[in-house]
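#random but structural
TW: two for the price of one
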Amino acid sequence: MNTGLTAKQILVTRPVDQAENLCDLIAKAGGQPWRFPTLAITPNPPDATGLANALNSNWLIFTSSNAVDFAIRAFGGKMPQFGHTQVAAVGSATAKSLHDFKWPVHCVPATEFSSEGLLAEPAMQSVADLDCVIVRGVGGRDKLAQGLTARGAKVSYLEVYRRQRPEADNLSLIDAIMRQQLDAISITSTEALDNLLAMLDTDSIERIKNINLVVASPRIAERAREIGFKHIAASNKPCDEQIVETLKTLYNGEYSGRSN
């Protein structure tokens, strides 16, 4: 039975601790996952003052599942006692991570899972003079903070993890690219994409731009177009299941989204 990705070799660039589910789904669809993490996620433990400010805020806003996971660690592995604090998530995957730990979620975008989508939600319109703490990694996007600040909110960050480019042996990957052995690449962040290119040599960078690229959002697709990738498919949602569905439709000739 054709499960959609039969014998297709798919490069998976997720961090080591987060790649297994996507690799399993690719394998179940008949594909062959090729693990090459282009991001390493490490803790950035906040101080007691930062944690106290978060618990006393009006809005505690989580920007990713990583933000949830490392915040849970910072709070001792369990949900703290909230007073008047409400919790928001930028997308469904982040909200699911919060629900898995029994955290309440009072606001999540209905469709567009991004900073822009969250800013469009009714609950984020009247935030003047409210304390909003954004839980994220060190050096994340400022779009959300800028939007809330423009509406009069008092915004601060709780940065609970760091993203780094991992050390890796790239020779086998470069060889696979030059031999045209890879059928597709999955990318779930612009930083992962930039790191991938930084981990290759000049010749393989030019070759890799001709490989099918499946990305987790339109924003990543735009970055890929700027770099010069020629065949880009954007997933409707940033979850592993939807990434695999996008890969399937790509190879079944059913993908109808924008691509180059």
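TW: number two ↓
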Amino acid sequence: MMEVTSPSAVRAIMSRYGLACRKSLGQNFLVDKNIIEKIIGAANLKTADLVVEIGPGLGALTKPAARSAARVLAVEVDRGLLPVLAKILEGAGDIEVIEGDALKIDFDEMVEEKTGGAYGREGRSYKLLSNIPYAITSPLLIHLLRGRFHFSLMVVMVQLEVAARLVAAPGTRDYGALSVAVQYFAEPEKLFRVPRTVFYPSPGVDSEVLRLTVRPRPAVDVRSEEDFFRVVRAAFGQRRKTLLNSLAGSGLEVPREAWQVILGQAGIDPGRRGETLSLQEFAAVTEQYLGFRGR
């Protein structure tokens, strides 16, 4: 099996197969064994676990994951990497590389097909590993969580500033719509920082590894999830404005006077800003909003 955990090894493989890092796909290959071991440890892999990996790159995480888990399904969008990955991963364990765009995949459907239904919606839960390309971090996380795929936990590496947003508390600078969405579906936990120097080529920023433990039920009960997130997005749409002004100017088809009443009924001061509201308070506003709409 080829070695892929040093810059020189990665350069040699890329030269041998005529590969080039594609900036559009956020290809920065992890080349540090210690960081790789810490990521695998964070996933707490068991011999019966199925792992889905998004963006295996040159297989630096894929091989050690396969040594600890029952099986790894690695989803790679770059068709040019597939034959190289096949050679790198040969003999490394029960690994299947699947060409696909993670933003469009129904992961439960994929897993059920590959495991005969042993894992997925009606089967066992499974785990996710991913060094997420910076350009698709937010949409991918939203897809993974709002898709309600049967993940039990996700260990992901994201840009440092994005990590701060995922775990941010109400009233802090980093708290926003992404914070609410992730915390609604999962319990995010920052684990450790990853310096840019352990990638080839080096990105322009440091990263952070997080563990997202998927909640069996969302953090708050809402009658309409779609409307809950509409209210959240509206509240954060104009951060410098008061909550009343943000909601009234959001296009949610409720007049300003009605928002004044809705917020009062929810026990929320209309002069507050959206970034100060907790998930429970957003749920309360949504409930009153639905009541006003007769829903």
